Amino acid sequence: MSDLLLEVRDLHVSFYLTEGIVRAVSGVNLNLRPGKTLGVVGESGCGKSVTARAILNMVQRPGRIDQGEILWYGDPEHPGDIAQLDSRGPEIRDLRWGEIAMIFQEPMTSLSPVHSIGNQMIEAIRLHHNATEAEATEQSIEFLNRVGLSQPTRLLDAYRHELSGGMRQRVMIAMALTCSPRLLIADEPTTALDVTTQSQILDLMRDLQDEFGMAILFITHDLGVIAEMADDVAVMYLGKEVEIADVDTIFHQAAHPYTQALLRSIPRHDVVTERLESIVGNVPDPYNIPRGCAFHPRCNHYVPAQCGNPELVEVGRDQWALCARVHEILPASGERTNA
Amino acid sequence: MIAENGKLLRVRDLRKFFPIWKRGVFARHVTGQVRAVDGVSFDIARGEVLGLVGESGCGKTTTGRVILRADTPTGGEILFTRSEQEEIDLAQLDRDQLQPVWQNIQLIFQDPYSSLNPRMTLEQIVSEPLRNYNVLEGSALRDRVAELLRLVGLRPEVMSRYPHAFSGGQRQRIGIARALALNPQLLICDEPVSALDVSIQAQILNLLKDLQQEFELTYLFISHDLSVVRHLCDRVAVMYVGKIVEISDTDELFNETQHPYTEALLASAPTPDPRVKRSNVRLQGEVADPSNPPGGCYFHPRCIHARDRCKTETPLLRETRPGHWSACHFAEELDLNSAATAPDVTA
Q1: Which among B38, B184, B197, B306 has most CB atoms closer than 10 A?
Q2: Global model pTM greater than 0.90
Q3: Nearest chain B residue to A204, by CA
Q4: DSSP for B175-230?
């Protein structure tokens, strides 16, 4: 018996390219609780989007899930491993959009250019529910209304190019909701939107979560959005989680040097900073991930003899960090946060 | 014309309209106009960093392009002080006359991938402006390229390599080196860090700030990101549908906001701290269509403070306090900051 909805254990995903093997995800563990939001934050290439696709068993060739379990507690007594399902089989199709829905960064490309909005919504509803065309139409109108789109009846006949970015993302959310998913995977859902539209969409997602009780896996590079949306946070760097904790701990008592450095390096609109503390170097290229701790070439706390192969260490209550020296650097960083 | 004291650039009533063409049976004809930049005025003093913020489609990039004269303005003046005694109106110049002026105005682009020619080496890229204007040649040219690369934090030994060998942050440094090559008086930075990863943004922002202080450079800094603008800019202008709605010193703009749109922008920006709750000031609806803007104040359909007067009478940008300009009829009456910064107790 588990109080989780989804559990990812030791997930490894690689892309087998002619230039070499890219280990996009190497050993990720995630726990999603029903009705809660897990934020996954990281820079480009850290594997956050690939993790999301793996959860839906949607990793495309030449990519492959090498190992790991993705346990779905749809029936808490009998969890199923999504990684074992045939990626084109009927079970996974029922899960996708039936229980787990996904929205993407660019709603433009997620909607078909040649089908009307109504067409696509009705098809999605009828694929997963035993509904007549009239019932499906009625439901579509109801959900378009629910996501704050005025004149939903007229919208059913509209095509994607007639809608603004914010409206498209609302339509995507409405489509995701039609099947009352228990988990919504949102991959950078507001990155392409302006701030004022972004705040509307974030509000909407929170309201809908309260109303429908779904869990959200929220993937973004934006620490501000994470602070606002997430209950728990996983920070990723080069295919691994480097820190996992609840949102308050991440922002106020971060343990991993990468999390700490990231938080110190971002400018804020509510605080004036004379000089930003930048992280040295660049994000390494995915073919040549540094050996040992992948962050060591950019880390202020690197000691050659000690930073061999770090493992996830429990730092505090429900706080885990992938750092061999975390207990030595924690006191110093504590002072820093308070200063 | 004699230059006004200390001002490097004075923009007056700048307008740029794009025609909307419709194809008829025999010919195309204009059916309307997108008012991308619609009467924009501001000054930039020598050594100042002016931020230009707004959402997509507000005309901030077009403003930058028109000042650079990459686009021809529909109307207005762009008064640029080239030397102590001479102020020229860039809007009146033709291509031949602009050629020497472009030495003094350079652009830093948003996308470090598409703004560098993949078939040119770093040396060729960075030296191109110097060669175009025959400033230097031979070993002096090479020395200057090396110096520029060092200045932006790259090793001069890499100058024989091609852009593909460099990451996004390093490419942006190359773009900055190229922009600095001719010692320009004005640098137009169009979203220079938006395409970069979070951990790289800080490096480039610090570099831009260091260079600005060391060489007393003047930036027109175009961005959609309020936190970046707050970090770097001395003054900030906020644009909405082709017009400047507020302009003031950075601290005052953030602490003593005088326009409801600025208030809404500040309230919408997420704060990287879960203990700070966003205020509940929310904008409804969408940005107005610049080819068919609403009457009166362009912002009134979305403004929570709008009154009848806002629907009919277009507000002018006026000085509501010394050095602080706002285009709102009720700028003095509204208490905008308490709403923008107060914690949301109901959430």
Answers
A1: B38
A2: no
A3: B282
A4: HHHHHHTT--SEEEEESTTTTS-HHHHHHHHHHHHHHHHHHT-EEEEEES-HHHHH
